[in-house]
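Q: Hi! New to this. If I give you a protein sequence and the SMILES for flavin-adenine dinucleotide, can you show me the bound structure?
A: Yes, paste them in.
Q: Okay, here:
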Amino acid sequence: MPKPDAIIVGAGPAGLASAMAMRAAGIEVAVFEKADSVGSVWRRHYDRLHLHTDRKHSGLPGMAMPPTYPVYPSRLQVVEYLESYAARFDVRPVFNTAVSSIRRNGSQWCAHTAQGPIRAPVAVVATGIADAPYRPSWPGSEAYRNPVIHSSEYRNPVPFAGKRVLVVGFGNSGGEIALDLANAGVDVALAVRGPVQILPRDLLGFPILAWAILYRPLPARLVDFINAPILRLAVGSIEKLGLRRAAKGPRQMADEDGRVPLIDIGTLDKIRDGSIKIRGGIDRLTPEGVVFADATKEEFGAIILATGFRPDLRRLVPDVDGVFDSHGMPQVTGRASSAPGLYFCGQITSPTGQLREIGLEARRIAEISKGYIATLGH
Ligand SMILES: Cc1cc2nc3c(=O)[nH]c(=O)nc-3n(C[C@H](O)[C@H](O)[C@H](O)COP(=O)(O)OP(=O)(O)OC[C@H]3O[C@@H](n4cnc5c(N)ncnc54)[C@H](O)[C@@H]3O)c2cc1C
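A: Thanks. Here is the predicted structure of the protein with flavin-adenine dinucleotide bound:
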């Protein structure tokens, strides 16, 4: 391999978009992917998953998603798109090659792999969040006798037939997995600890993301104020369903807390007709089930933790100052970090669509790193 200008770690959407944008800017890249194919995380998401963001706003730089795809493409179409994207721009990741750490060495970054070290003045971390499923535990967790899985391990309702299942968490994965189980006739409850925000997937005939992008320049509080009446009409009363509406509006919640509201694709209807039961937070587990915060007790044959992901990138990039927050998340993504030549792509949740944001970040990283490489006289 010729000596690269940039090392890119990960060949998911962020790694591929960064590779494409950097090569278009004349930067020689080497992409390392620990799996054996591009888009490996999308290959193992649950079967029924479709994008919640529309096709027109989910394509990566330089290549729109095909117009033959539906408005909300399926998981397999996303995989197909990522394969075509890599082929079209001739991005050839080095597969089956995990980067164990990236360390500064003079003016270079050194990525350590089982095949040996690789050096370049620029390193882009595009490792996503999928490796860090967050699995909370409660008093009694060790005594619970039935399966507990994380949403990232869920594929379809088949293993849950005939069981009572508790899904924990009211994010997009929790809402959709509960819906998937309810559609298959599984007896399912959804544990919702705190107040929530819910958005319809389409509003007045347009994808909700199109509205979010339109309103992006306006302050979050103003946007939430303008939208509140129409969203109440579109979503209906959630209080009657046992849910509490968050004091912060959807945009403020996303901007300030990094929490994406639930984009409803049918979960609310299933809550309304009683196929999905709403429960509160969990106080503790028993060998057969759960005691909720209101002291009610129920038995469950399986628990699915739709409790998100908590990556800590300090293990991958040790020995850097001021780059990470106290949880090990980068302070900035898609811009210059406080370490020269080190960039992160796609790690921060965006209210205007993560894939769209990845594309914007990749272009910015290409532009900034080109300038940076020029200052080094490469
Ligand atoms: C269930 C789900 C649904 C989503 N739906 C949408 C949606 O509808 N619209 C939207 O805009 N966004 C959505 N997202 C968010 C986001 O767009 C996706 O998670 C997207 O795949 C992120 O791309 P990425 O490249 O950052 O990470 P990933 O797709 O996770 O790719 C990271 C890659 O890095 C590799 N890797 C990790 N560590 C290393 C290492 N040390 N060495 C080498 N390789 C490594 C991994 O194997 C992986 O292939 C969704 C996310 C989830 C979890």
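A: The pocket of flavin-adenine dinucleotide is lined by residues 9-15, 32-35, 40-41, 45, 49, 51-53, 58, 98-99, 126-128, 130-131, 173, 316, 346, 353-355, 358 (CB under 6 Å). Let me know if you'd like me to explain how to read the tokens.
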